[in-house]
């Protein structure tokens, strides 16, 4: 199980990629105004809500007009929203895609009108009409999650076997495969040596996937796995790619009488540093790790890409060879993800002003 790893990853920023941009939304060259459509995927996960607002604020701060929309995990709705932005004359689109390969037709319309397209966090596939990609090192996210399991269970010092189950994200999100690969590659040697075993035998992306990254879908699968494979057996860890999924997994474990306060509660990983997951991490009541992606920096990178073009330059990128969208490698700016546990959440999350202790302590429980 090995997808192509990274190609050319440039450590330092500063490469200039050739941009197709430079003509106005009406196709005539001339001064750009920075008018930007921001198409975010959903309001069901905290990060997109915060980032949509952050992007608007930054772009407005540059004096640009913006249109912000949320597709609520509905591909058709997102396509309509993007089409309406094009009709309203945007010169730039920043898109957090829902269906990674469903936007070809609408982006062709955008390109006809000279719109510059920035894929935001999630790469858009199978279209020649994506100009830039702003994201994190997604493979590394999976590596960090798997390393947390390896270190917490001390797999290098013990023989096992330890029972682990794998979860992956939405199949139509291009990021899912990177998270999954990073995790699986990192666990691979422990699987070969038998220190780790996966009782369900579900080790491919499809059977482990979680539609819409949905917590309830994850809870159901975990419940089923426990019923089918863990009668007498004990589960030791769950590789989970995202906090919402992790909380669904924990709910299923608790329902099956695993005690979240006990030391031998399964190790559950996560991603996105959501307040409710951080609360559990801090209090030691379930999930024990999350991967923090400083989305303030991502919004800054994407907004600066727009500004660079409006100012007549080219956006800064630091990767030209990792993300092939089926047509070409997309010039990308990738930010580093950070492993967060009870030991360093204060330093990484609170001290950097991402969330306050209060926001973590008072996080609203999930509904439904
Ligand atoms: C992914 C993203 C993750 C997480 C997930 C669910 O595309 O990279 O950070 O937010 O979507 O929203």
UniProtKB/TrEMBL annotation:
Domain named Periplasmic binding protein: residues: 38-313
Location in the cell: Cell envelope
Coiled-coil blocks: none
Keywords: Signal
GO molecular function: carbohydrate binding
One Gene Ontology cellular component annotation held by this UniProt entry: outer membrane-bounded periplasmic space
Signal peptide residue numbers: none
InterPro entries given in the database record: Bact_Solute-Bind_Prot2, Peripla_BP_I, SBP_2_dom, TAT_signal
Protein name according to UniProt: Sugar ABC transporter substrate-binding protein
Gene source species: Glycomyces paridis
């Amino acid at each position: 199980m090995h997808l192509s790893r990274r190609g050319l990853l440039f450590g330092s920023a500063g490469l200039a990629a050739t941009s197709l941009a430079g003509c106005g939304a009406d196709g005539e060259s001339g001064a750009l105004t920075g008018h930007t459509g921001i198409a975010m995927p959903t309001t069901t996960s905290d990060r997109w809500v915060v980032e949509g607002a952050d992007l608007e604020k930054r772009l407005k701060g540059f004096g640009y007009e913006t249109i912000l929309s949320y597709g609520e995990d509905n591909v058709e709705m997102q396509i309509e929203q993007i089409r309406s932005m094009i009709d309203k004359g945007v010169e730039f689109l920043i898109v957090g895609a829902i269906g990674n390969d469903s936007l070809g037709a609408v982006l062709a319309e955008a390109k006809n009108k000279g719109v510059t397209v920035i894929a935001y966090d999630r790469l858009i596939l199978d279209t020649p009409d994506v100009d830039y990609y702003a994201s994190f090192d997604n493979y590394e996210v999976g590596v960090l999650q798997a390393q947390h399991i390896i270190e917490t269970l001390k797999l290098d010092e013990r023989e096992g076997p330890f029972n682990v189950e794998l979860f992956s994200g939405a199949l139509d999100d291009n990021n899912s495969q990177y998270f999954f690969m990073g995790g699986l590659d990192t666990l691979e040697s422990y699987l070969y040596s038998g220190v780790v075993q996966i009782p369900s035998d579900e080790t491919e992306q499809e059977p482990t996937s979680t539609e819409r990254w949905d917590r309830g879908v994850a809870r159901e699968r975990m419940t089923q796995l426990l019923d089918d494979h863990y009668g007498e057996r004990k589960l030791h860890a769950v590789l989970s790619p995202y906090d919402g999924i992790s909380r669904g997994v924990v709910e299923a474990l608790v329902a099956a009488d695993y005690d979240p306060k006990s030391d031998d509660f399964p190790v559950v990983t996560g991603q996105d540093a959501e307040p409710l997951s951080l609360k559990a991490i801090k209090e030691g009541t379930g999930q024990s790790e999350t991967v923090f992606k400083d989305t303030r920096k991502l919004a800054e990178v994407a907004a600066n890409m727009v500004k660079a073009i409006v100012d007549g330059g080219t956006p800064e990128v630091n990767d030209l060879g990792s993300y092939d969208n089926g047509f070409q490698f997309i010039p990308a700016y990738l930010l580093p993800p950070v492993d967060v546990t009870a030991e360093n959440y204060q330093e990484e999350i609170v001290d950097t002003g991402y969330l306050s202790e209060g926001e973590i302590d008072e996080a609203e429980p999930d509904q439904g």
